[in-house]
Amino acid sequence: MSLNLAMDVLFALGLLWLGWQVAAGRTLFRSIVMFVVLGLLMAVVWSRLGSPDLGLAEAAVGAGVTGAMLLLTHRRLLQIVPAYRGRPLKLRSMLAAPVGLLSGLMVLGLGWVMLDIPAPASTAGDAALAELQGHDVGNPVTGVLLLFRGFDTLLEMAVLMAAWLGVKMVQPVSMPDVAEAPAPAPILNVLLSAIVPSVVLVSGYLLHAGGSAPGGAFQAGAVLAAGGVLLALSGRLAPMYTPGLLQRLALVAGMGVFAALGLHAVPGGGAAMALPGTWAVYAIEAALTVSIAMTLLLLFMGSGGARRRLP
Amino acid sequence: MNASDFVHVLAAAALFGFGVYGVLIAGHVMRKLLALNLMGSGVFLLLVAIGRRGDGALDPVPQAMVLTGIVVAVSATAFALSLLLALYRKTGSAELDDDGGEDGL
């Protein structure tokens, strides 16, 4: 067994153990922490599979933003009923054994079927790679996202928007009391003034690099949102029921720019989603970054809008 | 299919299976959500692992789909967490069924 394969097996076993802890861990808090660790391990596995784009996205979105959301919700649940802290989850449902058995059988069946899928003679990926030869977009994943699967990416922004609308709708019930004054912490100001600008810098780099190297709007947007999450957790941003004008613009920027540039050729009889050039790819990516960051931040805060709060 | 892809495909199947078990058995809605995300991770892993087969050239299409999937998963999770908070505030319970309410946090 080569070292590479041994590492793959080791990571796979790690994924399985963490997955089991998530599905059947003793306490909910433990499950959440294991889920975050699972996300980080997934990021490593993506990199090993040769996909640093996915590794970046998983680390920032899957482990980072989702993990922060889960932990914050867990804390809010405890605030509502403090007696539940650390109480073990009882999983001894009468159905646990039969469901576990059937799930195990399903895993075997799935594995058997999935290993049996024949390798196709030619794939859409080959066609995409061949088509991208003449383009300036050097990162094939960015190319596929914007040039070949533009509708997917556009509608993904619609999904983000729909999720935000849903969060905004239930906000009066889920978060009736939004004011939560932060404790004064001098060291926090120093840390924030160092971390937040570098977060913006990293996000800008990821956006710029996305044209030719691993990175892109999703990773950049997620990192930018993480900066916002930091500000929200430290009390610099307070939730509001409705977003201000600037926030509304940020929320729709991605969809708006993408739709406008995607439809620009239609009046002249051109194809929808045919972009006018490489500059359009960068323009859309930049707008998507702003929208993804804004939406993820508001989703994290569980609110329709946000406002600045001075310490 | 080489041995490394074999390992990843089986891991994907197992993650999906754990997810199904968790969704069906967990009492607490938040754990059901975690398990749903686990199922998603399994599917993502399968897509990329299968896309890697053949001559070794990386297939960008499954990667782009998984990238989209990761963002959709996080937005759906955020909405679900909001609904969970609303449910909890309304009923004081984070479970969907009412057979005893054994689960806490």
Please provide a brief summary of the model.
Chain A is mostly helical and 311 residues long.
Fold and architecture overview:
- The complex is a heterodimer of chains A (311) and B (105).
- Chain A is mainly alpha-helical.
- In chain A, 70% of the residues lie in helices and 3% in strands.
- Chain A has helices at 3-24, 28-48, 52-80, 96-115, 124-132, 140-148, 150-174, 186-209, 217-233, 245-263, 278-301; strands spanning 237-240, 305-308.
- In chain A, helix 1 (3-24) packs antiparallel against helix 2, helix 3 (52-80) packs parallel to helix 9 and helix 6 packs across helix 7 (150-174).
- Chain A is globular and about 65 Å long.
- Chain B is mainly alpha-helical and 105 residues long.
- Helices cover 74% and strands 0% of the residues of chain B.
- Chain B is built from 3 helices and no strands.
- Chain B has helices spanning 3-25, 29-51, 60-91.
- Classes of the chains: A mainly alpha (311), B mainly alpha (105).
- At the A-B interface, helix 1, helix 2, helix 3, helix 4 and helix 5 of A face helix 1, helix 2 and helix 3 of B.
- Output the radius of gyration of chain B: 17 Å
Q: The biggest beta sheet of chain B, please?
A: none
Q: What is the SS-derived class of chain A?
A: mainly alpha
First-residue to last-residue Cα separation of chain B: 43 Å
Name the beta content range of chain A.
under 5%
User: How would you sum up the global shape of chain A?
Assistant: globular
Q: Could you tell me the number of beta strands of chain B? A: 0
